[in-house]
C-alpha cells in the first residue's frame, strides 16, 4: 500500500501509465493541473498520439484556497466516488463516469468532460441551455428520492447514512453558510463598499438570524436523504444539450431542500449579476426572464419526477397515507427557498464568493448586484413559510426589488 502523496504532474503521468486498459502502450502522456476549485487538485492526463484523456481528481489534506492552516479529511474523495456511483445508478448519463478510485491516494480517475463548460461560466457569457432545467430537475428527483426513507429499506438507509458520515465538510457548510455571515467572523470576505450596509442588514436583524438558526438546525438534524451538498452552478458542466453534475464531496444525509435551494440560489445570483454582464437593459431583461423560466421549469421537472417516483416506487407504508405527499413536497419547497436565501447571502459576505458577481468590473453595478442578492436572500429566508408553489419565488423577488 503506497503512502498518500499529493501528485506532481510527473507522478500523475507515472500513475496513468500503470492504469490497465486506459492508454495504449505507445501513448505519449502529458499532464496539466487544471483545478480552479477551493479544495483539490485536478489533473488532465492526455495522450497526444490518440487524443484520449482522463481526469485525476485528488483530494489534498487541507483546504487548497486557504492552505495548510486548514486541514481537511481525505475521506471526502471516498465519499465523492461513492456518491458519483449512486448518482450514475439513479440517473445514468447525468454524472461523469468513474473509472477507478484509489483510497490511499484519495484519487478518483474519471471521464474527461473536455467538451463541457462549467455552467457558471456559460451563464456569465449569457448562453442558454435547452435541457438544463429538465436534466437538473430529473437529477435531483432521482438522486434525492432513491436514498430517502420513502424508497430505501430503513436498515439499509441507516447503513448508507453511516457510509456518508462527512463531519468535516458539513462543518465547513455549518460555519460558512449558516454562522459566519451573521457576525463579524474572521473568515468573512466582505466587500469594502458594502461593509456599512451588512452590519444593520444582517448582523442586527434578529428576526432574520432566528430564521437562519432554524434553517441551520434543519441542515444539521434533518437526515432525509443523501444530498449532493454543494450543488451550485460550478458543480454542473454543460454542452448545448448535455448536462453533468460533478463534485459531490460534500455529500451527506441532509434535507432534500438543501440541493434544490443551492440551484435556486446560484441561478438567482446569476439573475442579480446580469446588468454587470449584458450590454443593455433589454438584454438584461431577456436573460433574466430566461433564468426565472429555468428556475420555474427546474422545480416543475423535479416535482413531476419526484411525484412519479413517489406514486410508483414508495415502499414506506405510512408515506402512502392521504395528504402525506402534499405536506412532504411543500416542506421541500419551503426548505429549498430558505436554504437558497442562506446560500445567496454567504456568496456575498462569506469566505467563498461567486464569479458571477465578483467579475463585474463596474463598481456601482457590482455593489448593486451584491445588495440585491442580500435583499433577495433575506426575503427568501423570511418569506419561505408562506410558499405553496414555485411562483412564490417570483413574488418574493418582486418584494425585494
Ligand atoms: C473552504 S471551501 C469553500 C466552499 O467551496 C465549496 O465549493 C463549498 O461551497 C464550500 O463552502
At a glance:
This protein has 14 helices and twelve strands. With 401 residues, the chain is α+β, with helices and mostly antiparallel strands. The model has no long low-confidence stretch (mean pLDDT 97).
Task: Provide a descriptive summary of the structure in words.
With 401 residues, this protein is an alpha+beta fold. It folds into two domains: 9-111, Phosphorylase Kinase, domain 1 (2-Layer Sandwich); 117-400, Aminoglycoside 3'-phosphotransferase, Chain: A, domain 2. The protein is built from 14 helices and twelve strands. The chain has helices at residues 9-17, 75-90, 119-124, 132-146, 154-163, 167-176, 195-203, 206-221, 256-273, 281-313, 324-349, 355-358, 363-383, 391-400, and strands spanning 29-33, 40-47, 53-59, 62-63, 67-71, 98-102, 107-111, 117-118, 225-227, 236-238, 243-245, 252-254. The chain has a five-stranded antiparallel beta sheet with strand order 1-2-3-7-6, with helices on both faces. Strands 8-10-11 form a three-stranded antiparallel beta sheet. The N and C termini lie far apart (58 Å). The mean pLDDT is 97. Residues 38-39, 63, 172-173, 176, 230, 351-352 line the site of 5-S-methyl-5-thio-alpha-D-ribofuranose.
